[in-house]
Design brief:
Layout (H helix, E strand, L loop, with lengths): L1 H17 L5 H8 L14 H4 L1 H7 L2 E16 L2 E15 L5 E11 L2 E4 L11 E9 L4 E4 L6 E3 L2 H8 L6 H11 L6
Parallel strand pairs: 3-6
Antiparallel strand pairs: 1-2, 1-5, 2-3, 3-4, 5-6, 5-7
Keywords: Signal
Organism: Mycobacteroides salmoniphilum
Protein name: Lipoprotein
Length: about 180
């Protein structure tokens, strides 16, 4: 009975909207919006969820301010959004100036495609980045979606820029770096 009612409502809506310049597909999408087919989940080993192991394996850990989006790169089934990021402070490694950062995810046909629901970086925002560097293309890849790009609040960003008290995320990373490297 319930399915007959929902079919009747859907058909009535489609008929009613057909004279208003709305297609049946558009009407159906309003009733039952399509789920993004380009969303995906990555499952990580304990190397990512164990912070000491995660930062030990990273080449660079730094605080950076996103200056601008610099395009997209699509490789097979992977989409990367590219950003120009100004290095504010090094936590591990020795970067300076502006670096190229790649994040898994992007926009395809007007639709945002994300990995692990990790939002795309935002221009003028400040993050703690945990990256692996690819020297062949001079690109710093965020080490893991949702773990390698930690947003800082405006207050936290000011504290970092002024060498004030470390925000909790940075303090935890520094503690993890002091730990002995995990056995391999």
């Amino acid at each position: 009975m319930k399915s007959k009612l929902s079919i009747a409502v859907t058909l009535a809506s489609a008929l009613m909207l057909s004279g208003c310049g709305t297609s049946f597909r558009e009407a159906m999408e309003k009733v039952n919006p399509p789920s993004p087919q380009c969303m995906r989940e990555a499952f990580y080993t304990s190397n990512v969820t164990d912070q000491a192991s995660f930062v030990d394996r990273a080449q660079n850990v730094f605080v950076g301010k996103v200056k601008k989006e610099a395009g997209q790169h699509i490789e097979k089934r992977d989409i990367y959004t590219l950003f120009k990021v100004e290095v504010v402070k090094n936590i591990k490694g020795n970067l300076s100036g502006e670096v190229n950062v790649a994040q898994v995810g992007g926009r395809v046909d007007g639709r945002e495609c994300l990995q692990n629901s990790d939002p795309l970086l935002s221009t003028d925002s400040v993050y703690v980045f945990v990256t692996k560097h690819s020297p062949n293309i001079d690109m710093h890849f965020i080490a893991a979606s949702g773990y390698g790009d930690i947003p800082l609040t405006g207050e936290e960003a000011v504290a970092v820029a002024n060498n004030g008290t470390d925000p909790e995320a940075i303090a935890e990373i520094k503690d993890a770096l002091k730990s002995p490297p995990p056995a391999k």
